Amino acid sequence: MRKERISSDVERKLRLELDEKANALGISRAKLIEISLKSELGHFNVHKENKRLTEAKARLEGQVSELTDTCDDLESQKNQLTVQHSDRINEIASALGVPNTLGHIKQRIDELQTAQDELKQEKTELTEQRDEFEKLLHAETDVCNKYDAQVKSLRKERDTFKAAAEEARKQRDTFKAKFEDAESNYRVCSTKLTLLLTRSWWDRLWNVLPWITEISLPIDETIE
């Protein structure tokens, strides 16, 4: 049974209480303590307590056996995990290309983590550059679409102008043909008028100068 330390105040208080009880009974404090111990020991059964302790011991031994088996199982699992852990460490070290020690593996992982962070930063920068390029590309596409619309409009105007020019060319050809016909008719009319005027002149001349009758006849026939 584990002994417990009692403070001096509590000890003094207990002594005072024992002295009061002993004085009330008319005995000494030592005698009171002796009587109290005999009274307590009278209720103590050695065989019953021994049986209880034996059963408790057997129960505890069973628990100890179970705990021993559990410890053995845990030790076996620990050994298996240690082997698996060692194999895993060797596998990771081989994959990383470093010696199979936790220090080298951790150092390599830190280096790879740093490289990954740098790649993420580079990826972020490239993504920003790509977004900026896409904005520029969209702007250029809008400009190209605008120019395409203008080109289509100009082509449409050109086709309209070509159609108008073709129509004007047809009208010019028609007018030219009419003009040539009119010019031909004018020449015919001019020739006829000249002949008429010439004949009329000869008629007047004949009336005025009857003495040229002999030479007028061949001239008139020539004109006809």
Could you please describe the fold and organization of this structure?
- The chain has 224 residues and is mostly helical.
- The protein has a domain at 8-102.
- 90% of the residues lie in helices and 0% in strands.
- The chain is built from five helices and no strands.
- The protein has helices at residues 8-25, 29-42, 46-96, 102-208, 213-223.
- The longest helix is centred in the C-terminal third of the chain and has 107 residues, at 102-208.
- The model is unreliable at 216-224 (pLDDT under 50).
Summary of the model, kept short:
This protein is 90% helix and 0% strand.
Index terms:
single chain; 224 residues; mainly alpha; 90% helix; disordered C terminus
